[in-house]
Amino acid sequence: MTFRVLTAELSHETNTFSRRLTNAQSFKDRYVLIGEEAIAARGEASTELAGFLDASRNYGWQIEHVLSAAAGPSGKVERAAFDWLCDPIVAAVERGRFDGILLALHGAMVLDFCEDGDGEILRRIRAAFRHEIPIAITLDPHANVGREMCSLAEIIVSFRTYPHVDMRETGRRAGAILQRTMTSEVKPRTIRVSRPMLEETNGGRTDAGPMIARLAAAKDYEERADVFAVSINAGFASTDVADVGPTVLVTGQGNFDEHTAFADTLADDIWARRHEVLNDYLTVEAAADIAAGFDSRQGPLVIADYADNPGAGGYGDSTNLLGALLEAGVKDACFGPMVDGEAVATLQNAKVGEQIRLAVGGKTDAAFGGGPLILEGELVSISDGHFVGDGPILGGLHRSYGPTAVLRVDGFEILIVTIAQQMLDLQQFRSFGIEPESKRVIALKSMQHFRAAFEPIAGKVIVCDSGALCTLDYKRMPYRNVPRPIFPLDEDIA
Ligand SMILES: [Zn+2]
């Protein structure tokens, strides 16, 4: 029997503290790809869609892929943008006679009218059914998974890597469980357990630390005949919602008391080890000190600004780290990206090779990461900001920074862009004429994902907290909706 399966990718990680709301243009800036266009762009890359297509070939499905859309992490998604992307999926469900639904979501989407954006997608789809059909979803482990999401999707499978490099495999795994459900071989549902924390302390790092053993235990438990997937979500702390925080999910059947007891052992471990921090979060001054004296014979020093990570909704225009590096006289270095469309627009009016003085960065909210820096340097290049990744995360995928310029200040190349992007791939420097391997110091904006492409070329990696929007100093953030007490905001639970 040939099953008909609807697929779609609709993803947003919402930082509810961001002043920048997410609208239709925010999605267009990242990608909005319809049907075959999405398959052509993403069908063979490291994406959930590629895994869905693998499953479709394995099981001989007839699929209708509605769309693939994502915006860079930013503020709440406006209703008009959400409806614009969700309506075609719901309309396809109403029109088609599907046997199953397979969706790639993020799991931390918040709307300007609803705390649980992913749950809202599922609610609308369920409401459009003529008869009950199974829904399988994949999630980014930086998901805040609420009870309702678990009741609306029978099958939930999260990535198992951070840096995330297993999107395709995750798509394939979700597809395999959906197939067994459609044939009535199994009848899964998903349970969740959580602990009162904003997020797993190390953000779910899987290259080091306690998550390695947790994932091994999860894989062992998946060997049981009545268990189809165990997902460990680190949560996403910059989302001020009731269902914030880490969760352990079991998608299975049979004895759910046992499944819950198993999930509790992992959640207890997350809770018990909440003080074990893997990174040493330096001040920008300490990072600049290390950079000033760094011997790069084994490769460049890579400095990650954790707090201004555009991949978690940071504005990307924090100047504290760049200012400290310039102040310390660090040369033979590169920095990127600095998100400042206004500065790029000014630079576009200049000639390549010209010396220019202008204010860069710090324009969104100086309280988080510092105010504008007055820089004087040589304009090295101007471009449209387009690049194609070649690393483990973005390999083969097209992205754009929008209008982009490179400014060289005293031997320091600064990549200034219009559209915020986390630094994930060497091509995000190389495509603009900056050769990261040849530098003594590489400063970039990312929490953990940069490691996939930059660790192999690094002599040493350090991480700093510039005090930007994704600072680890959570007490600075005006939380109102998370349940209290919660770690690490409240002393009585610390
Ligand atoms: Zn993530």
Report on the architecture of this protein.
With 494 residues, this protein is an alpha/beta fold. It is built from 14 helices and 20 strands. It has helices spanning 24-30, 35-42, 48-59, 79-95, 117-128, 147-152, 167-182, 211-221, 256-272, 284-292, 320-327, 341-348, 427-430, 451-454; strands at residues 4-11, 31-34, 62-70, 100-105, 135-139, 155-158, 189-194, 227-233, 247-252, 281-282, 301-305, 333-339, 355-360, 373-383, 386-388, 398-400, 404-408, 412-417, 441-445, 460-464. The strands form four sheets. The chain has a nine-stranded mixed beta sheet. Helix 6 (147-152) links the parallel strand 5 (135-139) and strand 6 (155-158). Helix 3 runs parallel beside helix 7 (167-182). The longest helix has 17 residues, at 79-95. The chain is globular and about 70 Å long. The relative contact order is 0.12. The model has no long low-confidence stretch (mean pLDDT 97). The structure holds zinc ion. Zinc ion (ZN) binds at residues 140-142, 164.
Short summary of the structure?
This protein is 28% helix and 23% strand. With 494 residues, the chain is of the alpha/beta class.
